[in-house]
Input
Amino acid sequence: AQKITQTQPGMFVQEKEAVTLDCTYDTSDPSYGLFWYKQPSSGEMIFLIYQGSYDQQNATEGRYSLNFQKARKSANLVISASQLGDSAMYFCAMSRTGGFKTIFGAGTRLFVKA
Amino acid sequence: EAGVVQSPRYKIIEKKQPVAFWCNPISGHNTLYWYLQNLGQGPELLIRYENEEAVDDSQLPKDRFSAERLKGVDSTLKIQPAELGDSAVYLCASSLRTGGVETQYFGPGTRLLVL
Output
């Protein structure tokens, strides 16, 4: 069975500093994808970044990067130069290749301090 | 390009009443999902459609929940009768079926409060 674990219920970071949000996963499938979503207080889940299990390089999207360590089954999100608007819930998610359902972790609430 | 549209954004009803949520996916997206998100938790899949066909409804409580996507575009999720425990956020998402890993794009959700 697939499982996503986010062990940090809440994180604080100073504005302009970098922060790492942890995500570990468990799957027996050889081909899968990992996602990070941001959910501000407005409720919408905003897609941030995607990493395929066969991708050789870590994914990057602007200030977001995904630290993918396949052997350790971890897919941590790194946010550089944090901004006040980054304060939100962040969810790690995984999906098997072929369009099967996506499972989500419990989320990490990030607080950015001015 | 317009994103996933959901309505209403908020709904307050008394228990035992019926309620319906509507979703319009991103144009061209053939896969549509309904998720339930309880407070402080990640979304959990209720049902997944590929075009008009419900291909995964194993987590949908069929005694009170129903869904439809008649023309393969818009979808409606209904609860009848609602219970106190149904208070949650109902999220709709859509994706483009590619055969690989599909990125899902979410709507703003409907916040349901059952009194």
Q: What stands out?
A: The first strand of chain A starts at residue 3 and ends at 5. The radius of gyration of chain A is 14 Å. Chain A has no helices and twelve strands. Chain A has a mean pLDDT of 94.
